[in-house]
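Anyone opening a protein record will find just a pair of labelled lines. A complete record is shown below as an example:
=====
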Amino acid sequence: MIRINRTKEDIRLLEQIDKLGVIPSKLEGFDFSDTAVIKPWGYEYLVYENEDKTLCAWVLHLKNNGVSTSMHCHRNKKTRIVVLNGSILLQTLQKELRLSGRVEAVIDKAAFHSIIAISSDCIITEIESPSFKPDAVRWKDKWDRELQEYESKCKLIKTHRLPCPYRTDSSSYQEIVKLIMETGYIFNY
C-alpha cells in the first residue's frame, strides 16, 4: 500500500487557492443514493455510506485511456483508492505512481492528487472518511473547473441507466464491502 502524505507544498497551495476564492458546491446535503454524477472523464456513483457519515465508498469509471480527474484535494478527509479494473497514474504535486491490479493508495487530507487512466475502462473505488462531497477543491483542470468545489455544475443520472457493476444490488458489491471493512484500520496512521 502506498501512502500519500500532505506536504508543506500542499498546505501552501490550498492557502493560495483560498485567497483566490472558490466557487462553492451546489450539492451540499444532496442524497447521492442510486445517482451517478456525470463527469467529463466518465462517471462516479456512491455505493456505501454509513449512518453517521464517517465513511463512504464511491466507484469511478474513467472511460478512456488518457482521461483524468482534476488536480484536487479533499480539505478534511482521507481517501483510500483501490484499482478494480485497468491501470491508472496517480499524480501528486511531487510524484507520479502507476497503480493497477489491486494496488492501492491512501491519500492524506489536503494532499493534492489527480487520477489519469492509462488504459480504457478503468474502474476504481474511493473509500473516504468522512463522507462529504463538497470537501473537494480543484486546482488544475482541463475541463475548466478550476477553483471549484465538488460539482458546482454537473449532470446527474440514475445508476440503473449506466453500467454500474458495483451497485448495492449487484454480486460485485461484496468486493466493495470487504474493502470498506478493512479501511478503518488502514486510516489509523
